[in-house]
Design brief:
The chain has about 180 residues and is mainly alpha-helical. About 60% of the residues lie in helices and about 0% in strands.
Length: about 180
């Protein structure tokens, strides 16, 4: 693990936070006393242990990919729901429902999605899909990025060509849905 270097100011701020925690949680005073001493006296070997559970920042490209995928599926599913019954019957509903990300192989994508949806109440339509049993959970249990990348490429092509507005409330036609899904080439 990379050693974290803290300034005196940062160490003092953290020490003060641990002093407050020590007062609030009297069961862990010995642990808090240790980190407070390490921070005040400048013992990075000791205080670095407390950073071991803090992850590095997620890659910005992963954040963008997740938001683009969720936005695309928002558009696909809402457009599907607005189709006439005959047009809707021509498309398998599961193709326009977000499938999640693989918790084993697409871990960062999955974790960020879980945080967005369950902690920050973004993309609430996904919660509705789970509630209505159209989606089991956010873990697809199989790799989804190859499919999502293909769909995104076609979805962005439509957006670039001005086929539909950048607003997420604009519905796609059945032909546009079929294009994004790769049905009509």
């Amino acid at each position: 693990m990379e050693q974290i270097k803290l300034s005196k100011t940062e160490r003092l701020i953290l020490a003060n936070q641990y002093i407050i925690l020590r007062k609030l949680d009297t069961h862990s005073t010995a642990e808090f006393d240790g980190i407070i001493e390490a921070l005040i006296n400048g013992y990075p070997y000791i205080y670095n242990d407390y950073f071991s559970y803090v992850n590095d920042n997620i890659d910005e490209d992963i954040e963008k990919k997740v938001i683009n995928v969720l936005s695309m599926f928002r558009s696909l599913y809402s457009s599907y729901q607005q189709l006439a019954v005959d047009d809707r019957n021509s498309i398998d509903e599961s193709e326009v429902v977000f499938s999640g990300f693989d918790g084993n192989n697409e871990t960062s994508h999955y974790a960020f999605t879980e945080c967005l949806i369950n902690k920050y109440d973004q993309f609430n339509e996904v919660k509705e899909l789970i509630k209505n049993k159209k989606l089991e959970d956010l873990n697809s249990h199989f790799p989804t990025l190859p499919r999502y990348n293909q769909l995104l490429e076609r979805w962005f092509t439509l957006k670039k060509e001005g086929q539909f507005s950048s607003s997420e409330n604009v519905f796609l036609t059945v032909d546009e849905l079929n294009y994004v899904l790769g049905h009509n080439f």
